[in-house]
Amino acid sequence: MAHRELLVLFFFLAVLCKGMSIRHHHSTKNSTSSINGSFCLSWRLAVETNNELPWRTVPTQCSQYVEDYLIRGQYERDLELIVEQAFNYVNGISLVGDGMDAWILDVDDTCISNIFYYKSKNYGCDPYDPAAFRAWAIKGWCTAIPSVLRLFNKLINNGFKVILLTGRDKETLGQVTIDNLRNQGFIGYNRLIMRSAAYKGQSAILYKSNIRKQLEDEGYRIWGNVGDQWSDLQGNFSGNRTFKLPNPMYFVP
Ligand SMILES: *[C@@H]1O[C@H](CO)[C@@H](O)[C@H](O)[C@H]1NC(C)=O
Ligand SMILES: *[C@@H]1O[C@H](CO)[C@@H](O)[C@H](O)[C@H]1NC(C)=O
Ligand SMILES: *[C@@H]1O[C@H](CO)[C@@H](O)[C@H](O)[C@H]1NC(C)=O
Ligand SMILES: CC(=O)N[C@H]1CO[C@H](CO)[C@@H](O)[C@@H]1O
Ligand SMILES: [Mg+2]
Where would one find the signal peptide in this protein (predicted)? Predict the structure, then answer.
């Protein structure tokens, strides 16, 4: 009787120990990836707040993290929250109504997405490759970012002039960008301003500031400005409110 009870106890203890060792092994295994996750979250926060600049590539250990962020829902949720803030702001604006109330939206990774391209570049772990990006952009396969398309339509319905301002080269990417925007539902904007020869080589901050100055000189009031890069929003004549969309894949100075 006592023997049998002892045997059962031993058996129980053996099972318990094995369970604990599995659990222990499991937590060690996971701790490396959670250390990565923790590091990559800090890194993403630093780049989104523009504390780390300029940065050239995503840290190699964060490729998986960035993929998960982009395709498992958090990116869309972040965008939705920002767009909700923009909606609240839009609803509170009383337009002057002279046709000069404007918003500025960036194009790449603001209106239309390049995530599919960046997948082939390890989500930004590989260095920037202008020729490959151009080859991708020429295909015109960028997809609409749904929350931004909702904002775009809301702005137009509320009577704003929506001006799209992009660093894309006008000469080589002009028509394909117009077509790509149209086939993704971006219809009814006031104009698309692309980088012409006169602005070649200028930093995005300077180029976009110069264009915004011209718009304000024409009499436009820039109520809002939306972009995935700080360089969309910095500089002069930035607009009364700016909205920074997330982009952990690349940095445009
Ligand atoms: C964590 O980082 C290490 C070292 O950079 C890398 O080898 C590993 O693949 C990363 N793990 C995950 C889950 O991303
Ligand atoms: C902003 O305006 C100031 C004053 O006119 C000028 O010196 C500066 O270069 C401008 N900055 C940009 C980025 O355009
Ligand atoms: C928008 O910004 C301009 C320039 O900074 C300022 O003059 C104007 O009062 C602002 N309008 C509102 C409604 O905040
Ligand atoms: C002890 C252990 O299994 N650690 C693993 C944790 O996860 C990383 C990344 O998946 C592995 O490289 C480790 O070997
Ligand atoms: Mg952009």
Answer: 1-21
Do 29 and 68 lie in one domain? The reply is no
What residues are paired with 162 via a beta bridge? 103
Nearest atom in ligand 2 to 206's CA: 13
pTM of the model: 0.84
- Digit-coded pLDDT (tens) for 72-88: 999 999 999 999 999 99
- Give the per-residue pLDDT at 131: 97
DSSP 112: E
119 in ligand 4 pocket by Cβ < 6 Å? no
pLDDT in tens, 18-58: 444 444 444 444 456 688 889 999 999 999 999 988 899 99
30, 97: one domain: no
Range of the domain at 38: 1-50
Task: Report the CATH number at residue 109.
Answer: 3.40.50.1000
Examine residue 251 and state whether it is found in any structural domain, yes or no. Answer: no
What are the C-alpha distances in Å from 26 to residues 20, 32, 106, 125, 248? 9, 11, 45, 28, 29
Between strands 101-105 and 161-169, the pairing is parallel
Please count the structural domains in the chain. Answer: 2
CB-ligand 2 contact for 211 (6 Å cutoff):
no
Around ion ligand 5, residues with a beta carbon closer than 5 Å are 106, 108-109, 228
Query: Is residue 27 in contact with ligand 4, taking CB distance under 6 Å?
Result: no
Answer whether 214 contacts ligand 2 (Cβ < 6 A): no
